[in-house]
């Protein structure tokens, strides 16, 4: 999986838009792209350490639906998927904004015991992952 050239234009002047934190553009280069992973370096400490509800928005689309993205604060990188088909030699523009929308994530219960990880939601099991060896009970042949 190769990441192609990303041009990042960081606006240090926050007065342009009260909510817009950074703007950047993704250039596709010589090749057509389809659902391509993107990594963007973010060097502004205030964004990485700030207490923001961040949303990634693409400019030039009809709706301002936030895109799925992940911010790695330690590495200083923003990861997302450049969705859909993007022809070669084109540029797509994005903004990372501070959103006033509060996110309420459902609470998932987690239990770790005896080499097992169990996830449940509203007392309904979701996942049971056995990460350690489980030996048969005494008196049962292990072969």
Automatic annotation (TrEMBL):
This is Uncharacterized protein. It comes from Maribacter polysiphoniae. It comes from the Bacteria.
